[in-house]
Design goal:
The structure is a homodimer. Chain A is of the alpha/beta class. Chain A has three domains: 3-40, no CATH class; 58-159 and 297-323, Response regulator (Rossmann fold, 3-Layer(aba) Sandwich); 161-295, Rossmann fold (3-Layer(aba) Sandwich), CATH 3.40.50.2300. Chain A has helices at residues 3-10, 14-21, 29-42, 48-55, 73-87, 101-114, 130-138, 161-174, 190-205, 222-233, 247-259, 296-311; strands at residues 60-66, 92-98, 119-122, 142-145, 155-159, 180-184, 215-217, 241-244, 269-274, 290-293, 320-323, 326-328. In chain A, helix 5 (73-87) links the parallel strand 1 (60-66) and strand 2 (92-98). In chain A, helix 6 runs parallel beside helix 7 (130-138). Chain A is elongated and about 85 Å long. The model of chain A has no long low-confidence stretch (mean pLDDT 94). Chains A and B meet through helix 4, helix 5, strand 2, helix 6 and helix 10 of A and helix 4, helix 5, strand 2, helix 6 and helix 10 of B. The first copy, chain A, binds a DNA duplex through residues 2-4, 12-16, 18-19, 22, 26-28, 31, 46-47, 49-56.
DNA sequence: GGGATCATTCAAAGCGATTTCAAATTTTTG
DNA sequence: CAAAAATTTGAAATCGCTTTGAATGATCCC
């Protein structure tokens, strides 16, 4: 069922039918109704490729995911948010999975040269991110999820990682904790650096000295967190509180605490960062988990919205959003206890 | 940089350039080289929309993901496998996220009518799956990840869920367990029904009667599994072994076992199904986890391959793959112990 | 009643690739 | 050496849509 067929069926020209369907004003209301009704009845939908060729818009946005590191609960949840918003506009999400950094760069070049996507979303930036520079060089519009240092203006949305960790750390200090472990992301990642800043700021505000042994940099998985926490709990004096980088990290730390014969929320406290996964609820845990909370799904929805704004002409220099992070106190964090 | 520009730059016609780049035989080897070199140097890539319109191929395959239920570690890992194979062919993955079942149906119709994709991958089938029927009606090629009852032939790849659970159950029975809990997926899902068949078959082969209180049907999340296992452990006599539907489920069960003051691998055994996530390794757990194992990522790679075969004309009736599942015994499963 | 205005409609020219069919050139053959 | 065959190139049609510019009737105004 092509436009031509539909037009013949209606005894109209392609022009009129196209206009009727796309809501142009210069078409008689009666014919518009007739066209719309017939199109719906016959299940007509414009051929995506033809439409894109004619309009010059790709009707898709791209996301490149590094299979080894970036796939996981965070990406899926974020993608869900992006999709939710874009589905309404009939814009597709093109997912390209790559193994290496080189592949990722190549993928962006492909996107740009073949005009396969109108824009991309860039995730997990480093402080100095080559990919962002490349995208600007290529003139491929993008929104950065996170922040990076760049000379040229770019559109970004980030959560206030520094502020979140600073508040969480300060709160633990208020409760009397002095040995507070930070399970952070990999060095070089902007968010990890920002969290470290918040952590250090809170410590130094109270004159508590920083102990490198209490900071871990790793991916956010149950397993790695378990090992790091296990090692830290063998230190003497051991940490009395943990700042877990993600809910997966929190699960690992939790196991290590149990393993060490300690009780979370009593002998050890923990505040975890919660990106809000539907299947991992801080309120349902036992004990319930204190968290710094910011929905990564909601961020996805908003970033999709920002992409749409860019595509309709809004200057990227005007697009910067720094989201505050909630601190939600529950049972896993409490006053420091004298060591057994 | 359009084909036209490239052709002018070379002093050749579009025809010749197009042929040279696409490897047609009727072009002089010297010119082909010159064209290839120049194209590479100038970074020319055909416009995706134009190419698709001209060839009639969409150059993309579609996946519709139900945000609420299907997003998560399983999908991401599977998607990684699919992408790995398809990237080599310059075929994109179009991800459409939907909320409801109705939306999902609508998404397939959109795919078909707008010719946005050449084929789709259908996941998480039910025993009688309307979506499969719809796709066959629409004539949209697809590979089913799993199985379903359908009158018409369709391409599928599935793992031997029945056999896997039957072997795991038999093994636990061999170890003397008689109260074996099964944490299964949602009723109606083919894989869950198949697992139940294997479970029941193993039980009845030993004359052990089935206790419905020992079977749970739920999504595979840490939290839900925790609650189900917690409730089951309060039964008297309590289960001495668990079959966990996924590694996330296993984590929840593990927490419940700890919580009940029991030790995994001693007072309680567990065998979990392991889809092989890079960040959740059965060997790294404590105790190490006995599993029925089958890589969902590898399945993704293979399904992508099958899609390519279908697109190059292989009849779907010839595409059926049933993959065996390994049983890997580790520390979490052992002989039944007398109850304390 | 006739020229100007307005509301509708349509034919045809893109969009950027592939592909058919024909033409030009070179090579082979008798 | 001329005719036939093979090799190499190009002009133009095509894919299915949007959009420009022109045309047709209907309506208005004096």
């Amino acid at each position: 069922m092509r436009l031509k067929d539909l037009a013949e069926h209606l005894g109209l020209s392609q022009t009129t039918v196209s206009r009727a369907l796309n809501g142009y004003p210069e078409v008689n209301e009666a014919t518009r109704l007739r066209v719309a009704e017939t199109a719906a009845r016959l299940g007509y939908r414009p051929n995506a490729s033809a439409l894109r060729l004619a309009t010059g818009r790709a009707g898709a946005i791209g996301m490149v995911l590094r299979a080894s590191t970036e796939f996981g609960p965070h990406s899926s949840e974020f993608l869900g948010g992006v999709g939710e918003r874009l589905a309404a506009e009939e814009i597709d999400i093109l997912v390209s999975t790559v193994e290496t950094y080189q592949d990722e760069i190549a993928a962006y070049r492909r996107f740009a040269a073949s005009q396969r996507v109108d824009a991309v979303i860039l995730q997990s930036p480093k402080l100095n991110d080559q990919r962002a520079e490349l995208l600007m060089d290529l003139g491929l519009p993008f929104v950065l999820h996170g922040r990076t240092n760049a000379a040229r203006p770019l559109a970004w949305l980030d959560i206030d990682n520094t502020g979140a960790i600073e508040r969480a750390t300060s709160h633990l200090l208020d409760l009397g904790h002095r040995r507070i472990a930070l399970l952070n992301g990999m060095k070089g990642q902007t968010f990890a650096e920002h969290r470290q800043l918040g952590y250090l700021a809170a410590l130094s505000a109270r004159g508590v000295s920083f102990d490198p042994a209490l900071m871990g940099n790793s991916t956010f998985t149950d397993e790695v967190a378990f090992r790091l926490a296990q090692a830290m709990l063998e230190l003497r004096p051991r940490p009395t509180a943990f700042l877990a980088g993600s809910m997966m990290t929190a699960l690992g730390v939790f196991r290590a605490i149990r393993q060490a014969g300690l009780t979370l929320g009593q002998e050890v406290s923990m505040i975890a960062h919660d990106d809000v996964f539907p299947y991992l609820n801080a309120d349902n845990m036992y004990p319930t988990m204190s968290t710094t909370r910011s929905s990564i799904r909601t961020a996805g929805v908003r970033i999709a919205e920002l992409i749409l704004q860019i595509l309709s002409g809004k200057p990227v220099a005007d697009i910067h959003e720094l989201w505050p992070v909630e601190l939600v106190l529950r049972e896993s964090s409490g006053p420091v206890m004298a060591e057994k």
